[in-house]
Specification:
The complex is a heterodimer of chains A (115) and B (113).
Chain A: E1 5-7, E2 10-13, E3 19-24, E4 29-37, E5 43-50, E6 53-57, E7 65-68, E8 75-79, E9 88-96, E10 105-106, E11 110-114
Parallel strand pairs in A: 2-11
Antiparallel strand pairs in A: 1-3, 3-8, 4-5, 4-9, 5-6, 7-8, 9-10, 9-11
Chain B: E1 9-13, E2 18-23, E3 32-38, E4 45-50, E5 53-56, E6 61-64, E7 70-75, E8 84-91, E9 107-112
Parallel strand pairs in B: 1-9
Antiparallel strand pairs in B: 2-7, 3-4, 3-8, 5-6, 6-7, 8-9
The chains are: A mainly beta (115), B mainly beta (113).
Chain lengths: 115, 113
């Protein structure tokens, strides 16, 4: 069964550093998403991406964040200057075109620790 | 996005059927009901989606009464591995696929031996 994959599984970085989180969505999906979950809290939507541009973003997704689909398979989330409060699990998801956008397939996540 | 209410936690035992009910009094005509499951330190997993009456797949059943103001996720013969958080989401998903999902706190289901 096709799966969303994410790398790395765990990233430790110092405050102020840039990080790039990588995702490989399911191959025939065209909608991509990033979410985050701070430990013990809800899963929060960050951004959705379609046709090489951002479709929707939340208030969390400020100028420190950016997304990119650099090639036909990868989907990345960049945080330019990490803060302590960016420590969280970051989940990538993808959705099949033509289906309900509420049917999303999530990756295993990247645990980001900012020290 | 319709507001949903579900129990914060539930306990059951292996082999039992578990029913988790979600209230969504303000559900709109075009809204679907979708359930996700999340294990600790893993991403949410799509379980089932329905609009009305009953939907069944290999994992669960979803019962939706005629007024659609609530729905019940039914897990048959649960095992310890069904211990997870279960989320009920309601919305029409008509944003052309771009809709970000809004997760609540979900129901923490604990299965005991």
């Amino acid at each position: 069964e096709p799966e969303v994959t994410q790398t790395p599984s765990h990233q430790v970085t110092q405050m102020g550093q840039e990080v790039i989180l990588r995702c490989v969505p399911i191959s025939n999906h065209l909608y991509f998403y990033w979410y985050r979950q701070i430990l013990g809290q809800k899963v929060e939507f960050l951004v959705s991406f379609y046709n090489n541009e951002i479709s929707e973003k939340s208030e969390i997704f400020d100028d420190q964040f950016s997304v990119e689909r650099p090639d036909g398979s990868n989907f990345t989330l960049k945080i330019r200057s990490t803060k302590l409060e960016d420590s969280a699990m970051y989940f990538c998801a993808s959705s099949p075109t033509g289906g309900s956008s509420y049917e999303q397939y999530f990756g295993p996540g990247t645990r980001l620790t900012v020290t | 996005l319709a507001k949903t209410t579900q129990p914060i936690s539930m306990d059951s035992y292996e082999g039992q059927e578990v029913n988790i009910t979600c209230s969504h009094n303000n559900i709109a005509t075009n809204d679907y009901i979708t359930w996700y499951q999340q294990f600790p330190s893993q991403g949410p997993r799509f379980i089932i989606q329905g609009y009305k009456t009953k939907v069944t797949n290999e994992v669960a059943s979803l019962f939706i009464p005629a007024d659609r103001k609530s729905s019940t996720l039914s897990l048959p013969r649960v095992s310890l591995s069904d211990t997870a958080v279960y989320y009920c989401l309601v919305g029409d998903g008509s944003g052309g696929g771009a809709d970000g999902l809004t997760f609540g706190k979900g129901t923490h289901l604990i299965i005991q031996p």
